[in-house]
From TrEMBL:
This is D-mannonate dehydratase ManD. It comes from Streptomyces ochraceiscleroticus. Residues 129-257 form the Mandelate racemase/muconate lactonizing enzyme C-terminal domain. NCBIfam families: ManoateDhtManD, PRK15072.1. It is an enzyme of class 4 (lyase). Gene3D superfamilies: Enolase-like C-terminal domain (3.20.20.120), Enolase-like, N-terminal domain (3.30.390.10).
Length: 402
């Protein structure tokens, strides 16, 4: 029987910081997992190196479900982003290995192809409405069928999602950048630019918007109602999701579809949101919600309630996560959409991925496993750099959700 012989944890910053797990079996088969948790990367690296690696050596890599249960229940202190990101990385690496041993791409292990390609959405942004519209048109010109739109709110430096340069990277400072936030200014401005995008670019594509946890339930209800004529594909994270009940109020006031889940890390975190149909898309990801094994469970629960998938795919999720996501997206019946932000050029120097983009869709690699390789020699050129996500503060100085 093959055994787990070596487990390596790499922390490097090729374009941004990624934590990557590589498991090697006694048969010389390797598997990769993404263990990146933006702004808290070293916590997961230590959880893996100091606490999980000793448990993995000598174990049977074929027993993926058993390993998941062993790491989840065996921790006693279960759940949360650090623990679940570590478990996700191990799980994903074992699926990579299983695919390589079987000689099949992972989507074939998940039931085979349900669709020809995986529709993705791009991130358009602008410092004002005009530059946002230009960016939306640019992505439509590249063949995207779906585009997210975010514009800077005048005089509010802390607006989420406005790209500076080629790649959007919010974790940009060696200590958290404290940014001002003004909800009223956002509520006055955001509907105007979403309307302007529809007016100029039409309704022939999916338009998405990320509120990024910043409204109260009633503010979110008002926002959703106000933008109904924009026919958004979704409004994302309209209010913080710790209080799942809050989404009932939003539901009562608007038909704008709701997407939640990128910061949630288990099926229990989304159970009521799904079973009470408080959301339309679940955004949990391979890297933060327990890997392929657990994310498949979440997606299957969602399918029972006609909730579709819409996994997180920002640049702080590595090419390993993107590849695993596309395999899952290719196979599951209730696929909705996949977030896709191009990584920095330096990232591609370290991660070789078989995922391809064409005609607004991503396509999984046909190679056995995930179809990603990690070049640790190249990674040595990009030593770890501590970076933090910003912190938002209201105009009165109190902390707000960034
Ligand atoms: C965002 C992310 O992609 C999204 O929908 O919410 O950019 C998020 O801000 C980052 O992943 C945080 O690290
Ligand atoms: Mg988001």
């Amino acid at each position: 029987m093959s055994k787990i012989e070596r487990v390596e944890v790499f922390v490097a910053s090729p374009g941004r910081t990624f934590v990557t797990l590589r498991i090697t079996t006694s048969d010389g088969v390797t598997g990769l997992g993404d263990a990146t948790l933006n702004g808290r990367e070293l916590a997961v690296a230590s959880y893996l190196r100091d606490h999980l690696v000793p448990l993995l050596i000598g174990k049977d890599p074929a027993r993926i479900e058993d390993m998941w249960q062993y790491l989840y229940r065996g921790a006693y202190w279960r759940g949360g982003p650090v623990t679940m990101t570590a478990i996700s990385a191990v799980d994903t690496a074992l699926w990579d290995i299983k695919g390589k041993v079987a000689g099949l791409p992972v989507y074939q292990l998940l039931g085979g192809r349900s669709r020809d390609g995986v529709m993705v959405y791009a991130h358009a942004s602008g410092t004002d409405t005009a530059s946002l519209i230009d960016d939306v048109e640019r992505f439509l010109g590249l063949g995207y069928k779906a585009v997210r739109a975010q514009a800077a709110v005048p005089d509010v430096g802390g607006t989420y999602g406005v790209r500076k340069g080629k790649v959007y990277e919010p974790a940009a400072t060696s200590l958290p950048d404290e940014q001002p936030w003004d909800t009223e200014a956002y509520l006055r401005f955001a509907p105007t630019y979403l309307e302007a995008v529809r007016e100029r670019c039409g309704f022939g594509f999916h338009l998405l918007h990320d509120v990024h946890h910043r409204l109260t339930p009633i503010e979110a209800a008002r926002f959703g109602k106000q933008v109904e004529d924009c026919r958004l594909f979704w409004m994302e994270d309209p209010t913080p999701a710790e209080n799942q009940e809050a989404f009932r109020l939003i539901r009562q006031h608007t038909t704008t579809p709701v997407a939640v889940g990128e910061v949630l890390t288990s099926i229990w975190d989304v159970q009521r949101l799904i079973t009470e149909q408080l959301i339309d898309y679940v955004r949990t990801s391979v890297v933060h919600a327990g890997g392929i094994t657990h994310l498949r469970r979440i997606f299957d629960l969602a399918a029972l309630y006609q909730v579709r998938t819409g996994s997180h795919g920002a640049t702080d999720l590595s090419p390993v996560t993107l590849a695993a996501a596309v395999h899952l997206d290719t196979a599951v019946p209730n696929f909705g959409i996949q977030e896709y932000m191009a990584h920095a050029d330096e990232t591609a120097e370290v991660f070789r991925s078989g995922v391809t983009f064409a005609d607004g869709m991503l396509h999984a690699s046909e190679e056995p496993g995930l179809g990603v390789e990690y070049d640790e020699k190249a990674a040595e050129r990009f030593p770890y750099q501590a970076r933090y996500l910003p912190v938002a503060r209201r105009l009165d100085g109190s902390v707000h959700d960034w």
